[in-house]
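Question: does this match?
>
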Amino acid sequence: MHKQNWKDVVELSGITAILVGLVFVYLEIQQNGIVARASLASGTSDQIDSIYQQLSDPQFSGVYSKSLQSPQNLTDSERMQLNGFFSRFMPMFGRERILYRLGLWESPDEITRTFAPTFFADGYGSVWWSVRKETVTPDMVLAIDSAIAAPIERAQIGLAEFDEQILQRLVE
């Protein structure tokens, strides 16, 4: 082979190696995105599970029930518990929107549409949200207010409505 032919072969090999490297980097980035989404989904699931565990605590469930039935009669301590409980949703709602913008989440407000009507539509939660909304971004306010105002899907009924349905069926 001539020197020129060897030079062409080496250049072609180098270009091929660069292209293979770029394909490999692309596949790695895709794989990392999948792992990141799975990790985020798992963290969100853990957070949601923690919220429901708190609701099942006998002491807190009594406070939450009171917040729906007679919020004006809540003590300072009960309001503090509820403020902490409701505050847990804000980072979760905000993170969901940020991750959507980064392409790591499928919907900008799926979690918001699920939980906002459940916890912020009535009782102390609705009053808490009416005050809290003054401190969050306009797009977050719009997402939460839209979720609260939207017709509630069967799978998204609030806890009070869910409890009423259970009691009604027990009586039947």
Remarks:
- DSSP finds eight helices and no strands in the chain.
- The first helix runs from residue 3 to 56.
- Helices lie at 3-56, 58-69, 76-87, 89-101, 110-120, 123-132, 138-149, 159-171.
- The CA atoms of residues 95 and 108 lie 9 Å apart.
